[in-house]
Specification:
Elements lengths: L6 H4 E4 L18 H13 L4 E3 L7 H10 L8 E6 L8 H15 L4 E6 L11 H11 L3 E7 L3 H8 L6 E5 L6 H4 L2 H8 L2 E5 L11 H7 L4 H13 L4 H11 L4 E3 L4 H13 L4 H11 L5 H4 L8
Parallel strand pairs: 1-2, 1-8, 2-3, 3-4, 4-5, 5-6, 6-7
Helix pairs in contact: 2-3, 3-4, 4-5, 6-8, 9-10
């Protein structure tokens, strides 16, 4: 039977914005608990049941936990959090206790998933870090273990790891590296789940070229060509970026600054028709212009 609510499996609300000014183009204020409650309630009413957070996002777990606690049928919620990067060389007990602390903040008995915040933490998997995580899983405090990565090489390493079942990767209309490297196909073959983040490249894909020029100068030329392509085909940056994400057939982690923005995103996603020929046309135009310094935020100099 077809899922009556595909949004529950296909869209994940990213909650970094609940605790920090996330994104190179973000000018919004950090939310209060009241605004967080409204955003989570709106997400729930739109059919979203998956939420992405992290120990390193200040207040995010607390805000999310209190917001979900006010929702009916909250047992349907699937939360993925991430271990703080500064715990990579911590003791097993410290890692385990950090998970218990996250559960307290989230007001939950367990989480659906727990990821390493970055790929480098995998180097500590066979040490205390992995021991603490496995203990938490064995005791039912979490269901799935995973890792968030930046590059295709890191994604392949994570997919090859026996203890990893969920992986978060960046992919968007400008960044096709995961597709080209066969990451999505390999995950499917291994029955592992890929979550896609950075669908708008921290807002760069949605920004006018002149703003891109001031924030990320190396992307200015690509931004001009991107917007010309959209204009030619009478597309909005938001809808085409979403269309590209939907074509990946993996859950999309999407952040939002307001209930209105979130409603627009979900409604656009639900009613869009995939135009695969346009996606392929854009990929051909984009590929020669993309560099690592454009698509990898760890290489950016924030202005």
């Amino acid at each position: 039977m077809k899922d009556p609510n595909p949004i529950s499996e296909e869209v994940v609300l990213g909650t970094a914005q609940l605790g920090i000014n996330y994104g190179i183009t973000n000018t919004s204020n950090i939310p209060t608990q009241i605004s967080a409650n409204k955003l989570i309630a709106a997400a729930w009413n739109l059919g979203i049941r998956q939420f992405d957070t992290a120990q390193a996002y200040p207040n995010s777990e607390n805000f999310l936990g209190k917001a979900i606690d006010q929702i009916e049928h909250q047992q349907e919620a699937k939360v993925v959090t991430k271990i703080h990067p500064n715990l990579q060389s911590a003791t097993s007990d410290n890692v385990f206790n950090s998970i218990k602390s996250s559960l307290k903040s989230l007001q939950a008995k367990s989480v659906w998933g727990c990821m390493l915040h970055n790929h480098d933490m995998l180097d500590y998997w066979d040490k205390a870090l992995g021991s603490g995580l496995r203990k938490a899983k064995d005791l039912g405090l979490l269901q799935n273990l995973g890792v968030s990565v930046y590059t295709a090489k890191q994604a392949h390493r994570a997919l090859d790891h026996e203890g990893i079942s969920i992986i978060q990767v960046p992919s968007n209309a400008w960044d096709h590296s995961m597709i080209d490297a066969g990451v999505f196909q390999k995950a499917k073959e291994l029955n592992k789940i890929i979550f896609v983040r950075s669908l708008y490249l921290q807002g760069i894909l949605l920004s006018p070229p002149e703003l891109v020029k001031s924030k990320l100068p190396q992307a200015y030329k690509l931004s001009l060509i991107w917007h010309q392509f959209l204009l030619t085909h009478k597309l909005s940056a938001h809808s085409f970026a979403l269309q590209f994400g939907k074509s990946l057939k993996s859950p999309l982690v999407i952040g939002s600054d307001s209930t209105e923005q979130l409603a627009e995103t979900v409604n656009t996603y639900k009613h869009m028709t995939l135009q695969q020929s346009l996606i392929e046309e854009w990929k051909g135009i984009c590929q020669p212009l993309v560099t690592e310094s454009i698509i990898n935020p760890t290489m950016w100099s924030y202005n």
